[in-house]
TrEMBL record:
Catalyzes the insertion of molybdate into adenylated molybdopterin with the concomitant release of AMP. Its cofactor is Mg(2+). The keyword Transferase applies. One of its GO terms (cellular component) is cytosol. Residues 175-311 form the MoaB/Mog domain. It catalyses: adenylyl-molybdopterin + molybdate = Mo-molybdopterin + AMP + H(+). Gene3D superfamilies: MoaB/Mog-like domain, MoeA, C-terminal, domain IV, Molybdopterin biosynthesis moea protein, domain 2, Molybdopterin biosynthesis moea protein, domain 3. This is Molybdopterin molybdenumtransferase. The lineage of its organism: Bacteria, Pseudomonadati, Pseudomonadota, Alphaproteobacteria, Rhodospirillales. SUPFAM superfamilies: MoeA C-terminal domain-like, MoeA N-terminal region -like, Molybdenum cofactor biosynthesis proteins. The keyword Metal-binding applies.
Length: 401
């Protein structure tokens, strides 16, 4: 058996980041930026008012009250064209350009208007409520660095920097193939001795959440010809993910089929759940073969598929992060496999995270994976643990997992 880290390193070393494509800025949420976003405008382009009021010369109103002649109006988007001379003011609104000759804004609450004149009652400091040109950014400033996963704030800044289109890393195309004569798609007639497939759709959701483009190929039978034909559907994908048929049974054919058409390593990984895992290539498409047990396939997705997608997206590719938590139940000594126990995670009175592993941990129990708040990680040969001891957990933080 090989350790989890070794398997992950092998997978990552055989994947290379994908190229870029252009998408509209509004379609770029959740995409990875392929090149720096530099401002194509200066914002604000010229000095503008930050308040509704009057544009004045500060020197004119150093002694208050002071009465000025209102010579015109500057609404946002349509600035005053003339020059403000001594003794004059321009009625101005938030976002409007500061008229030539004016240097400060008096807010309307500090004035009294009467016909074509205005009396200023509070003296403004020089530059009061004036936003200088380039206060936010200047032409050429780098707003968002390449490699950033774009969120709504980034979309706003990129749009404000005048980018209708952005170059982003192409979404990894991940083909997903479930295998097994015993499984049917949800909603299809369920034959005698058959069960409903959960893995392919769970993996599809996982891929989408992680930034990939899933393509569910369907369910391949436990028979060479059918399996070979279904695998051919993965042509053009950046990665083929299979579930089931990874073990040593007579009907576990994935390894044989893939091995004949490409190259495939079969590993036993020192982890539970998720011991049998395959990795290799077929027709130059990398293949990740996950175990069929539903919880094993999802834990393997979290540990291996997530980082693999991150690598294809050119992002830092590493396993999920752990954090300390206080154990809420005693645990027996662990054997040589690294354990990933489904656990509820709660916060106790002093703010410490409390991990309560479920008593049953069979890798067929998807319902417990959904109830869990995270995985309690136990290293190989971890000694018996008592409630109250500190352990490491992987909280399910990603909104899509
Ligand atoms: N003699 C041994 N038997 C097994 C070993 C072993 O080392 N020696 N390993 C066990 C472990 S650990 C695992 S994990 C499983 C992995 O088995 P496979 O990857 O070959 O998967 P299958 O046999 O096809 O299925 C296992 C289990 O999962 C159910 N399944 C399969 N696909 C789906 C799906 N899409 N949705 C829902 N459930 C699915 C399937 O019906 C089986 O119950 O092997 C152990 N055996
Ligand atoms: O790896 Mo299996 O996942 O222990 O059931």
């Amino acid at each position: 058996m090989i350790p989890v880290e070794e398997a992950l390193a092998k997978i990552l070393s055989s994947l290379t980041p994908l190229g870029a494509e252009e998408v509209s800025v509004e379609a770029a949420l959740g995409r990875v930026l392929a090149e720096d976003v530099a401002a194509r405008v200066t914002q604000p382009p010229k000095p503008v008012s930050a308040m509704d009021g009057y544009a004045v010369k500060a020197a004119d109103v150093a002694c208050v009250p002071a009465t000025l002649t209102v010579i015109g109006e500057a609404p946002a988007g349509r600035g005053y064209q003339g020059m403000v001379e001594s003794g004059q003011a321009v009625r101005i609104f938030t976002g409007a350009p500061l008229p030539d000759g004016a240097d400060s804004i008096v807010i309307q609450e500090d004035t009294e208007a009467s016909g074509t004149s205005v009396t200023v009652k509070e003296a403004p400091a020089l530059g009061n409520y004036v936003r200088p040109a380039g206060l936010d950014f200047r032409m050429g400033d780098i707003g968002i660095p390449a490699g950033k996963l774009l969120n709504a704030r980034d979309i706003g800044l990129a749009a404000g920097m005048n980018h209708p289109w952005l170059r982003v890393v192409r979404r990894p195309r991940i083909a997903i193939l479930a295998t097994g004569d015993e499984i049917v798609r949800p909603g299809d007639p369920i034959g005698r001795d058959q069960i409903v497939s959960s893995n392919a759709l769970a993996l599809s959701a996982f891929v989408r959440g992680a930034g990939g483009e899933p393509l569910v190929l369907g369910i391949a039978p436990d028979e060479m010809d059918g399996l070979t034909r279904m695998i051919a559907g993965a042509r053009g994908a950046d990665l083929l993910v299979t579930t089931g048929g990874a073990s040593v049974g007579d009907h576990d054919l994935i390894q044989t089929v893939l091995g004949e058409a490409g190259s495939l390593d079969f590993w036993k990984i020192a982890m539970r759940p998720g011991k049998p895992l395959m990795f290799g290539k077929i027709n130059d498409t990398p293949v990740l073969g996950l175990p069929g047990n539903p919880v094993s396939s999802m834990v393997c997705a979290l540990l291996f598929l997530g980082p693999a997608i991150a690598r294809l997206l050119g992002q830092a590719a590493k396993g999920p992060e752990t954090q300390p938590a206080r154990l809420a139940a005693d645990l027996k000594p662990n054997d040589r496999r690294q354990d990933y126990l489904r656990a509820t995670l709660t916060i106790d009175a002093d703010g410490t995270m409390l991990a309560t592993p479920f008593a049953k941990q069979d890798s067929s129990q998807f319902s417990l994976l959904t109830k869990a708040g995270g995985l309690l990680v136990r290293p190989p040969h971890d000694p018996a643990r008592k409630a109250g001891e500190i352990v490491q957990v992987i909280p399910f933080r990603d909104s899509y997992f």
